[in-house]
Amino acid sequence: MRDPFPIAPIPALSAWIQPYADALHLPTLPLHIHEVLGAAAFYTFVHTILSPIISNAFFSKYYPKNHRARKANWDAHVVSLAQSVLINGLALWTMYYDEERANSDWEQRVWGYTGASGMIQALAAGYFVWDLGITLLNLDIFGLGLLAHAVSALAVYTFGFRPYLNYYSSIFILYELSTPFLNIHWFFDKLNMTGSKPQLYNGIALLVVFFCCRLVWGTYQSAVVYVDMWKAVQRGPDAGYIAAAFEKASGVDKNLMHFAKDAGPVPVWLAVTYVASNLTLNTLNWYWYFKMISAVKKRFEPAKEKAAVPAGGKGTGNVATGAMVGEKQGLRQRAHSIEDVVPDSEELRQGTIQ
């Protein structure tokens, strides 16, 4: 499928990046550099201009405009919300309408390229360019954990311009289907709506979507990509297969294997990099979900009665009093909130590739 981005590649930008793309073996980067930089510029605009304007207009009571760290965190959540809604919608659209991508075999899934999948990859890379920049500028706020996250995520999406696993760019971006609910949950807290019914319903949706898109969908697709990578490490695309692909069609918009003419087996270091990143992400996803389940169980455990017995054993009255106090404390437990079963948004953000 042809790249559906409304702006065509800008010759000057493509020419500027070409030497770097050649040196790094990223032949499709010149076709999408305008999308990478455009996305980074758009998210910078949202963070520095749009978020302050909207937040001051509609949430002036809660927007921490005079607190540098809290303001940066608020604006970053606005960007994250906008990005997750946009990229999820485009990824779903690409998966539905890109017929060439849908009909890909394993060799095309590894070495193939379509313009639409390249666009998804470029827009995601642009987000991580912004993420890396904003983290470096506010390292004292976001910390080394988010810096490592931004660097690794940008590296993974940049490697896709080889092209490598271009097919999977839309698939794994759908991990982000839970991110809008996560950001909305965070904003409910900041708007003093913790424990409200809207936050409860949003929290239930968050748990369900998190389970479906990250654990079920993500684990299954990870197994599929591992099989493809194992085959690709063993051998490159078949020469007869490549020749037949070029005879059937020519041009980057028609031949999925256009950039695989001289491709060999996938380097082991590249496969290991992707497997390590994916395993880390999936492990964290499972860890966080079981933490959620554990938190739910704890909310339904009865309060344990505690009573201090003085030395000498003459503490019957105190024991009775302690039991009564323990019982009353059990009756006075605070109302359950979805806050108890959802991990902190910053902690989840550190454990995911957004």
UniProtKB/TrEMBL annotation:
Its membrane topology: Multi-pass membrane protein
Disordered, as annotated region: 331-354
Transmembrane segments: 36-58, 78-98, 110-129, 141-161, 167-188, 200-220, 266-290
Residue ranges of every copy of the TLC domain listed in the record: 69-301
Pfam families: TRAM_LAG1_CLN8
Highest rank taxon of the organism: Eukaryota
InterPro entries xref list: TLC-dom, TLCD
Location relative to the cell: Membrane
Predominant place of localization: membrane
Keyword tags: Membrane, Transmembrane, Transmembrane helix
Listed name of the protein: TLC domain-containing protein
Taxonomic source organism: Podospora pseudoanserina
Lineage, broadest ranks: Eukaryota, Fungi, Dikarya, Ascomycota, Pezizomycotina
